[in-house]
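ARCHIVE CARD
Drawer: 12
Card no.: 0347
Subject: one protein chain, sequence and derived structure
Cross-reference: see card 0346
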Amino acid sequence: MVRAGAGACVTAAGHALGAVEKPDVGTKAAPTRPLAMWALTGRLDSGEVRRQLDLFRDADWGVVLYPRWGLEIDYLSDEWFERVRYIVSEAAARGMEVWLYDEFTWPSGQAKGKVASGGGRCQARVLRVGADGRCEVSVVPETAGLLDITATRRFLEVTHEGYAKAIGEYFGTTVRAIFTDEPSFPQQHRGGLRGPNDRWAVAWSGPLNAALGGDFPARVSAAKDPGDPALWAKYWAAFTDVFESQWVKPIAEWCTSHRLAFSGHLLGEGSLGSEVMSSGSLMRQLGHFGIPGIDEISTRVDPEKCEALTLAAISRFPGRERMAEVYALGPPGLSTDTMRRMMDLMTACGVDRYVMAICPFDFRGCLSKREYLGVAGIQQPWFREAAKAFSEHVAEAAVAARAAKPLPIEWPGDEAVWAVAGPEPQKSAPLRDWTEKLVRAAREALRDRLACAGGGPSPSGKALVADWKFGALGDNSLRLDGQDLILDFVPPDASLSVQRQLVGALRINGAAVDLGSARPDTAYDASYGRVPIAAMLRVGTNRIEWDSTEKAPLRFLPHAILWGGFSVDGRGHLVQPMTSIKAGDWRGQGYPEFCGTGCYTAEVQFEGPPKRLEVDAGGYPVRVVWNGADLGVRCWRPFEFDLAGVAKAGPNQIEIRVTGTLGHLVAAKDAPPIGLLGAWI
């Protein structure tokens, strides 16, 4: 539960929020549904587009159209805009909210290289300062120059104007906003810019040079101390003005003039030094956003570990919708209870719009982005149980979020920050100390606002002891990474999902499998093909081999997954499905990589009817059916069910269903415990 916090924000001179006119778009009462950050990959088959939109629509989620690694259509081509038009028209027919993402992957402003390819003033520049203070300007030809209106106009021309031509009729209705993602400068996302004699490298452009009087490099070179903070305070003031006038404001004005909210988030929100380095003044730049946003892609629910300064910053925009990009780093075994707790933390700071990252169209992107996997979309087994409930909770939490006041923190003014930033703000000791002070104050305020339980459940009743029968509702699953498969039993319904990007040919016990007949495995992920294989298996050792472009297993992208009615014994052999297991983690009881819904059933005698049931399933969705009555699903704490009117004295038929996550299949060893871990009455 979240309660709106008290306390007014103390606004110091320099941040001047009141000086930025609040944009008209995105400030009124608006939908509160979650937004799937829908990572668009492959060729975006029309049938698969419709199927996935139906699932998001049924969950009452909107979508952000996010082109990502694995897209097999040329970004910003005619074919791309045709597919976007098709998606938006189908979303409109379903009454869905759509946002556009303004880049291919990250960072925004590049148009996948199309801006920098314009040459000249479209290309980024860096001012290098040597150890002796001598300055040199270098062109970074592969990167767009966000400090020059020429690059900004080209960016708008190839992206925003392209969308306006393709789907402009939907602007302001189905299409509500454009999401920008960490527009940044070459020294922030490219290595190797400094030469062996360079001391510093900072963003540069002709307009910035003019704003500094045209002689800043000469002044640095002539200075007794090239790192004099007073000298660099002028640089950061000019940098802020130029970034605002040459990039942020033109983008915001284009969006407003086209009935769209400018949203997304900037880079470097977590400290004063990184804010200066990335945007000059985070508050000033976000002031132009119709729906200002933050980045909360690391899932943190503890105020002592959260991005407190980031949350404090977004809290300073009352009266607007405020957005957070969340969960992108996962992990894939993230529980729905943890998701809700993190959302409540952000709600306390006024965040009422949630961009759920990442929701892959399919897993093609995992071949490029291998180091982590966050999935908040339809591939998650919990999606069918929890996604609609999550949307309903978002709508309720938005009421508290919109009433939340700014965190009571005394922010420093821009001029005060610039005065001590120096040429490397992220290494400035005064800014580091200032940041630590602000973070402590923000965390204290957050602790005061949050009223959610810590740790696991605290059962207050008597343990429910029963002889539980167990069954998987659907297939068991087991990832295969090239090992032999030993069967004491051949599942008659055995099938194999094969990763189409990785596997060129497949053989089972020496016989070739016809992968050409494999249907897209929409039950798991459309980038896989599924084939029945029971007829090719035998009792004993089975050799499953494939020709692959990747010889070693990929952590989050299995070459193949076995599905069917089976269990796995302590030797790793496939055996008949185990139907009697003890309360506890099901992974050690025959289902080591099961990622679906497990159903526990028992008949229990009671002298008198119990009044309530509390369940610990590790924070994952739980559905209870008691004496045939469906008591609904609980996706987060309290995992409690009212038994009034359904429980009775004597024998009671109890059914407890627990739904796991994708992480329990692709990264089972790292996933938390799952199953009926405990129950109390």
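Annotation on reverse: Confidence is low (pLDDT under 50) at residues 1-21, 452-456. The chain has 15 helices and 33 strands.
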